[in-house]
Amino acid sequence: MLTLRSAYRRVAPSGARSRLTILIFHRVLASPDPLLPDEVDAVAFEARMRWVKDWFNVLPLGEAVQRLRDGRLPERPLAITFDDGYADNARIATPILRRLGLPATFFIATGFLDGGCMWNDTVIEAVRAAKGPVLDLASLGLGAHRVDDARNRRAAIDRLIAALKHLPPGDRADKAARIAEIAGAGAPSDLMMSAGDVRRLHLDGMTIGAHTVNHPILTRIADGEARAEIELSRRRLEDITGAPVRLFAYPNGKRAEDFGLRHVEMVRTLGFDGAVTTAWGAARHGADPLQLPRFTPWDRQRWRYGLRLLRNLFEPARTAVQ
Description:
Elements: H1 4-11, E1 19-25, E2 28-29, E3 40-41, H2 42-55, E4 57-58, H3 61-70, E5 77-84, H4 87-100, E6 105-108, H5 119-129, E7 134-136, E8 144-146, H6 150-164, H7 169-183, H8 195-203, E9 207-210, H9 223-241, E10 247-249, H10 261-269, E11 274-276, E12 283-284, H11 302-312
Parallel strand pairs: 1-5, 2-3, 4-5, 5-6, 6-9, 10-11
Antiparallel strand pairs: 1-12, 7-8
Helix pairs in contact: 2-4, 4-8, 5-6, 5-7, 9-10
């Protein structure tokens, strides 16, 4: 009988013919949140990690990158990653991972440590806190938005994030702050990790990776600023952990749209061993280790989740364009 495990083995055997799956997560919530429908809660996350443990050989990402280079991956290899540095990664996800004996890599945007808040979360929490049936943002050129139920609040969040996402970082943060002011909401100070959280993750054997300081879209800022964002984030994390930081994640991570070849070369000249994108697919021997794809199924049923992972193993490799 062909099981999912045996299917993965056929598609991703050991050695140079293997294919590396890298999962990407952002948050793991204590309980489901209708305003964050794409984020898993603790129960759902643990179920998925149990499936992954049953089907794959889970490796630390740094080890997986080296074995990919050398053509020495085991059969059914997989690595687990988290982006941005949310506090729930340390306080909810990590205890689950430790209990299951699974390693993971956490890519941290250092500018939000110790009480900071990412612009998109400022928007989300502002819409959550908004009173009345309508949030009127016409003075910001952002229209008026119904916020009288969870569905309309979620729709408002989607529209506002799409409108702000590709603004210059300073303008984006300013508009998010103005939205919060109009909504009568303060930016939350407990969503992101502290430096102590990062240090404990490192001491627990998890891998820490760089993710810039302020999470800018690299294609929208000057090259010198982009290089500084990458380099300074690594330096801060090395100061916190006392250990080298060898891995990087491109903010947003879409090739051409969010980063280009010049940013890949920045990461290369800065001496990183591996870097990850958000392109779907699985990495194969000979792939550029600084443009590794990542993917996470959204399915809730075990068999659908497993089939989605299998299908992803056949995705063609995608790399950045100039």
